[in-house]
TrEMBL record:
Residues 7-225 form the Cytidylate kinase domain. Coiled coil: none annotated. It catalyses: CMP + ATP = CDP + ADP; dCMP + ATP = dCDP + ADP. It comes from Flavobacterium frigoris. GO terms for molecular function: ATP binding; CMP kinase activity; dCMP kinase activity. Keywords: ATP-binding, Cytoplasm, Kinase, Nucleotide-binding, Transferase. Pfam families: Cytidylate_kin. InterPro entries: Cytidylate_kin, Cytidylate_kinase_dom, P-loop_NTPase. It is found in: Cytoplasm. This is Cytidylate kinase.
Amino acid sequence: MNKKITIAIDGFSSTGKSTLAKQLANNLGYVYVDTGAMYRAITLFAMQNGYIGAEYFDKELLINSLTSIRLQFKYNPELGFAEMYLNDVNVEKEIRTIEVSSFVSKVAEIAEVRAKLVEQQKEMGKDKGIVMDGRDIGTVVFPDAELKIFMTASATTRAQRRYDELLQKGDAVTYEEVLKNVEERDYIDTHRDNSPLVLAEDAIEIDNSHLTREEQFEIVLGLVNEVIKTE
């Protein structure tokens, strides 16, 4: 029986990290964890409680409320993946809005928030056999992961993908609004003091600007099989 490994997928927003991670987890029979959903859920909590808005962000109130935030992934057999629950409420749809996207990088900058979630993420992956995607999985959460993937694509390509996705969900957004959000998130993610988005020295970078989901999956599955053979 093949030895189970840890697969860390990092990269910029809207590069399809979650889609790839789900594909790999389903193919390999691994656990999939969307760390972005965890940060989005805390962002939604901050929005619901009036801690963050367009012109303000009360970080101390959010930090002091962290102990009252309970996050869970619950598997939905009809969808084939786990959905995010915030304090026992399914918030999978709410956390994917452009409003949450506009604030999530600011929330993810907070050291106390990252410490809380990184601790949970490390616990989730202690037995390996996991695919986890985010911004600091290969550098902070699982620095010893057997396979690290770093995904990138041009900002315009990512904005178009995100725009199309939001339109399909019925959200009233403009392409310009989405592109601005993508560029702002890129800047915050790569310039924050705590666990910035960086390419790990031993990560394999994949620019999927011109790859289909199927092509990308086959490339990475090939990398996975190479690693497993050598373990």
